[in-house]
Amino acid sequence: MSRYIIGRLLSIIPVLFIVSFLVFLMLHLIPGDPVRNMLGLHAPPAAVEEMTKRLGLDKPLHIQYFDFLQKAARGDFGISIRTKQPVIKEIRDRYPYTIKLAIGGTIFATIVGVLLGIISAVNQNKLWDNILMVLSLLSVSTPSFFLALLAILFFSLYLGLFPSIGIQSPQHYILPILTLGAQSVGIMARMTRSAMLEVLNQDYIRTSRAKGMSERVIIYSHALKNALIPVLTVIGLRFGGLLAGSALIESVFGIRGIGRFMIDGVLNRDYPVVQATVLLIASTFIIINLIVDILYRVVDPRIKY
Amino acid sequence: MNSKVFRRFIKRKSSVVGGIIIIIFILVAIFGPYLTSRSPLDIDLRNTYQQPSRNNWLGTDNLGRDTLTRLIYGARITLIISFTSVFLGTLVGLVLGVISGYYGGFVDTVLMRTTDILLAFPGLLLAIAIVAILGSGIVNTMLAIAFYSIPYIARIVRGVVISIKELEYIQACEVIGCSNFTTIVSHIIPNSMSQVIVNTTLNLGTAILTSSALSFLGLGVQPPHPEWGAMLSTARDVMRTTPIAALIPGVAITLVVLSFSLLGDGLRDALDPKLKNN
Amino acid sequence: MKKSIFLKVVLVIAILILTSFSVMAQSDSAKDVLIYGTSTDAASLDPHVQNDSHSEQIVAMLYNTLVRFEPDGEIVPDLAESWTVSEDNLTWTFKLKEGVKFHNGKEMTAYDVKGTYDRFMAEDADASRLIAKNLTQMFESVEVIDDYTVSITTEDSYGPMLSLLSNRTLAIMDPDVIAEYGASTGDFVESSIGTGAFKIVDWKKDEEIIVERFEDYFDENAKLQKVIIKVIPEAASRVIALETGEIEMTNQFPAEDLQRLQDDPNITVRMTPSVGGRLFRFGCNDPIISNTLVRRAIVHAIDRQSIIDGMFPGMTYPSTSCLTPVVWGYADLGVIEQDLEKAKDLLAEAGYPNGFNTKIVTTPRYEKGVELAEVLSAQLSMVGINAEIEVLEWSVILPLWMGVTPEVFDQPMFIMGAGTSMMDADGGLRALYTTTETGTNERNYGFYSNEEVDELVFAAMKETNPEKRLELYKRAQEILYLEDPMGIMLFDTYNRTAAVSSLQGVETNGVGMTYFERIYFE
Fold it and tell me: How far, in Å, CA of C416 to CA of C59, rounded?
């Protein structure tokens, strides 16, 4: 078991390297001279030269990459061109919001999604099942930003229930988390449903029924436990998806998170910010996947890689 | 094959509905602009944010432009972006999958590791990163979406190529000396077609979501082009007084994406019932 | 049965807890704390660098100038208590107030004034000081006479000196702070030290700035103890925030909400004439745009009234010159009506009977900046001019506007906000429209160059007779506005504030700066 964990840990190292290399390369893939892109075309040659030296852009590529890695390990991602603050400081300020949204969204999606999936599976092909399946398809097809606008329109402006903009109080988290999680609810429900269906048709379930166990006990203690395994993987994947999707939600709700910061960075050609945020989100994603992989193995030792 | 597939497909009403909506969408996108005399760029500042009326069936937007006309032209833009990018991605994916599966070895490992990484990533994040490098606009949006469509297809095709390589009669053929490559290629298409078709259809839906998300954020299609996501973004400011301006493009996007999902699901069941629980 | 009662109890408790949160949040804003909503964060709080009204307003809270404008346009003493002019009109001597403290406790002396001004007057002052340098190009030297007396000597006589010194760009800073922080002065709390009625205590980028009353302010202390400046980029959200009480005042709201805000009994809307106007400048380095006839054609192709009616009703009025009525030196030259025939004739005369292709560059930082570009493009297409639109963010477009060479500058038409912080035609015309010495665009972003305008503006700068100055400026405006247009003047704006009705003492001067130290809750 531990060998497996170590093996997986080692395997993500090359992945992280490749990702960091691609992110590092971003600056050089942009058409035009990176320094001129940052300072502006008008910059006097002396300033361009100085910045080039300061950023180490005159050194060979592999040395630049090494420097980039070293600095990234220390948390030095440079200075934001727009806010003039160290990028790492900006990230530290904003990361909590995004994490709270992603975690909240995942929890919400898991609870509601699994519940709906169970109801669907138990009522297979009957009315509830059909309704819920269409709803889940709908949740995946609706653009998250549209859903967010609808939520604001309905809950905030029309019903006056929840605040819409900003993130000052606990209530402010409700609508963003609901909208962020909504897309995943559909996926969770479908996953749970098909997993449950597979399990429910197994022999040992039929035996339990024959033995006379109540349906409820069968569903909740036997079927669910086994059905949850594939659901686990989806939770992990969705969390990563939520991290990226939070950019849209943060934009609509005016929340100062990492996603919004990345978008602003792209719009403002603030390349240090773009590099740092993309790298951070990507790395988080990879690590989450790793944890899910390991958990999966722990929960179901039958699975061999 | 065709009639059996067709009969299986028709059984699922939801997929049929999806298919019909897609056909309507394509027809509107291609022929719609010829049916309306107005231009989506016709500004009329004295009639901004009008409610639906006889003159403007769906009302007007922030600059007095007719929403219905913009919706129709927006369908065209959506069609072009999604179809071009996904087909481009599928094509490249096909080629890469064939190369990877056929040659195996180092090339295969490198390509597959890369697709592993790319597959794991949320498409929107990749698209944003690519737009960050290349800049905004229609062409770059298409390239960004094409890029993340590649891994799926590449994997599928590679799998098919590898399984074909194992087939006995291919190996027998080798002994005889017939051209391996063309044989394999001629076998790839029928064997992978169902998976590729299903995947491409679903990808089209995702492509629309991504391109509208990019335009919504200001990173995709630039003004004054009537892209549905961009239209949603401008409608944000007047949601209280004219909610319909936001509802129309949003519902349009949802409807088309939903239809692609339904269609894709139906195709999957019809083409290969064994894939049901995928 | 028991379970459902239990659930109900839990639900009630949950609701109580949630509502108590909101009550707690509101009781935070006691009646001497103002929450002010703005559309963007300040770009810089360095007086020499700031170049937009959002930054300028906060700079106005934190810094003082030697003299300042009152709401009615009168110039009164601020940091200087009195002044004299020499016989030859070349040297101005200011007697400074004593006991003025900076936020860090240091006392302000004449050395600080000299230190502040030397910074941008220096030969090697870097590009960001360009604005200040340009404004004061007639300054020859700033000398310390004694601890509380400083003199400014100009190359030629300079009539509008006092107006110039009221300009926020010439606020007095602490040279020690400048020396310590260099280029990052004004980028964060510690490096934004002034003498103003408020001092900055917190700055969360893109979120909020918190300023508190400076207890050692040399003049009457601010009535409010704290002002929280919140950044709410979406216009609709800002209005909602005002209506729900999340913010108590804002100076930017869309025209669509004007009526509703005015009708709301809990909200008071105030509008005052301002120096501000919206225009699209010409990049005269462009081969086609450099043709005077082309520019005149463009200027006549635009329907300004429909833009005002459709996009900014009740908050703007058509421009009648390249300056607004509150600026000293303004001449009413009438509204340029749309005349498509005339435009087409002029284009034909210029050699473009079938129009031409060009580009409009805009930024969303200006209210409805993107929509304005779209409208202009549509209106120009009616005379055959095909203008594509390029949208750039503020931090991308700003570096392109200062110190760029004509070969590099690629904005045939670009959005601009006019508004001289001097309230004098010298500020509104000289730096912006006279030919630059260096060949880069400095503050004449569009490379406009007209010999007669150069002569007139510089003559008016040195002229001390007000009558003669008015004449010179009138002629200059005729050229800039009509004969050899420097841009498409669209409309003049009102300074506007919308605040809860319990807020009193809200006064805004023509430049658009609100006197936050005078505001109080009833």
Answer: 21
- Least confident among A32-46, A47-61, A158-172: A32-46
User: Residues 217-236, chain C: which have Cβ within 8 Å of A?
Assistant: 230, 232-234
pTM comes to: 0.82
State the pairing for strand pair C357-362/C413-418: parallel
Q: Is A279 helix (H, G, I), strand (E, B) or coil?
A: helix
* A126 CB-side CA count, 13 A: 7
Test A285 with B14 for CB contact under 8 angstroms.
Answer: no
pLDDT band at A305 (very low <50, low <70, confident <90, very high): very low
Closest chain A C-alpha to B210 CA, distance in angstroms: 9
Q: Is B273 exposed, middle or buried (0-12, 13-18, 19+ CB in 10 A)?
A: exposed
Q: Do B45 and C310 touch (CB under 8 A)?
A: yes
Contact between chains at C310 and B46 (C-beta distance less than 8 A): yes
Q: Are strands C198-204 and C208-213 parallel, antiparallel or unpaired?
A: antiparallel
Closest CA to C167 of C83, C84, C47, C272: C47
Contact C172/C115 with Cβ under 8 angstroms? no
Peptide bond into B224 cis (omega under 30): yes
Cβ of A42 and C240 within 8 Å?
A: no
Q: Which of B46, B224, B236 sits opposite C236 (nearest CB)?
A: B236
Chain B: give the shortest CA distance to residue A191, in Å.
Answer: 9
By C-alpha distance, the chain A residue nearest B125 is A244
Whether the CB of B112 is below 8 Å from some CB of chain A: the reply is no
Mutate to test the interface with C, among B46, B69, B216, B237 (most CBs of C within 10 A): B237
Q: How many angstroms separate the CA atoms of A136 and A150, rounded?
A: 17
The dihedral of CA B125, B128, B130, B133: what is its sign?
Answer: negative
pLDDT digits (tens, 9 = 90+) for A246-285: 888 888 888 888 988 998 888 888 888 888 888 888 888 8
**Sign of torsion over alpha carbons C495, C501, C502, C504:** positive
Tokens coding B19: 């298919």
Q: Which residues of B touch C377 (CB under 8 A)?
A: 224
User: What's the CA gap between A247 and A239, in Å, rounded?
Assistant: 13
Bridge-based pairing state of the strands C249-250 and C226-231: unpaired
Mean pLDDT of B235-260: 88
Q: Please give the angle made by the CA atoms of C434, C436 and C440, to the nearest 5 degrees.
A: 135
- pLDDT score for C487: 93
| Helices and strands (H, E) in chain C, number of each type | 16, 19
**Residue-by-residue DSSP string for C276-324:** EEEEEEE-TTSTTTT-HHHHHHHHHH--HHHHHHHHSTTTEEE-SSSS-
Integer-rounded Cα radius of gyration of chain A: 24
ipTM (interface predicted TM): 0.84
> And the tokens for B170?
């291919």
Give residue C264's Cα distance to chain centre: 29
Taking CA atoms, what residue in B is nearest to C307?
Answer: B45
Task: Please tell me the predicted confidence (pLDDT) of residue A86.
Answer: 87
- Of C237, C276, C316, C204, the closest CA to residue C57 belongs to C276
Residue type, position C109, single letter: T
CA–CA distance, C238 with C244 (Å, rounded to integer): 10
- Strand partners of residue C317: C492
Could you give the CA distance from residue C460 to residue C474 in angstroms, rounded to a whole number? 10
Residue C483 has which token pair?
A: 């004969």
